[in-house]
Amino acid sequence: MIDSLYIAWRYISFNWARTLTLVACVTLIAVLPLTLELLLEESERQLLERAESTPLVVGAKGSELDLVMNSLYFGDIVPELISMAHTEQVKNSGLALPIPLYVRFKARGAPVVGTTLDYFDFRGLAVAEGRRFALLGECVLGAGVAAELGLKPGDELLSSPETLFDLAGVYPLKMRVVGVLAPAHSAD
Asked: Is this structure's pTM higher than 0.90?
């Protein structure tokens, strides 16, 4: 038994680079699936947390996935728009508090979300610096976007044009930054 261990030790000490490579490969094969599973579980938890806190999303006929991703995470694909009359119908039914979202434009890569003040209360968002918007043309930035763009209350932000060569298109909107949200570690 001791002879076998001695021979094994001599092999390992003579072929140390090969042994190290073999140990690293076996460790990687064992650890990678566990790490990947932990990362997937955490991302699933974060995605479901935001989705479960939103009881109902109403939109026009079309892709349900696009509607949910645009409503919850402000995705790039804009679903077909509905009118504010639908918001009034939901409000008059008494079944839910409607919070309209208009997520079509971007400003320097970040989505511009048009909504009402009820959205702040619904998502539990607090303004860390400045105040909430009160007039058209005012905006409140998320903490991450404010830090990334280097903006603070009193600065101005210009929305990005949809296309550069469409002269008859929608003109960019010049928004006055009036507040910055506290970090919420979410899409907001």
From this structure: no
